[in-house]
Amino acid sequence: MPRAVDGTRRKDRRKKILKLAKGYWGRRSKLYRTAKDAVAKSLSYAYRDRKVKKREFRSLWITRISAGCRAEGMSYSRFMNGLKKANVEMNRKALSNLAIEDKEAFRELVSRAKSALE
To answer: How many other CB atoms sit within 10 Å of the CB of residue 8?
Structure first.
């Protein structure tokens, strides 16, 4: 009866880990044991930071909108409240782009928000 050897499964599993660790510094990319730990940690960071990225972008958009509002003499919270009362439904990403690229259109939105608050 032929002898069973843990042939390709073990090798494939290790190759997969080392492929994921490609580009890591020093032993982390060469040795299986250290690469396994490094890959496990990096995958957990990647999972966590996919969530964090969404928070950071929303924060960036709010900062840009706020800067555009301040230039027009209005606070961010009053601007958003005015837009809601004026039934203007735009997401923060689009508002942020307007504040940067099309200042005239953003100025028009600020004036609409001001008139809705009065």
So the answer is: 9
The CATH number for 99's domain is 1.10.1900.20
pTM of this structure: 0.76
Q: Give 35: exposed, middle or buried? Use CB within 10 Å, 0-12, 13-18, 19+.
A: buried
Give 16-51 pLDDT, tens digit per residue.
999 999 999 999 999 999 999 999 999 999 999 999
Tally the domains of the chain: 1
Give the span between the Cα atoms of 75 and 63, in whole angstroms.
11
Cβ neighbours, 10 Å, residue 38:
19
In this structure, what is the dihedral angle of CA atoms 50, 84, 77, 66, given to the nearest 10 degrees? 60
Instruction: Please check whether residue 2 lies inside any domain of the structure.
Output: no
Residue with tokens 């307007």: 98
In a domain, 61, yes or no: yes
In order, the DSSP letters of 28-76 are GGT-HHHHHHHHHHHHHHHHHHHHHHHHHHHHHHHHHHHHHHHHTT--H
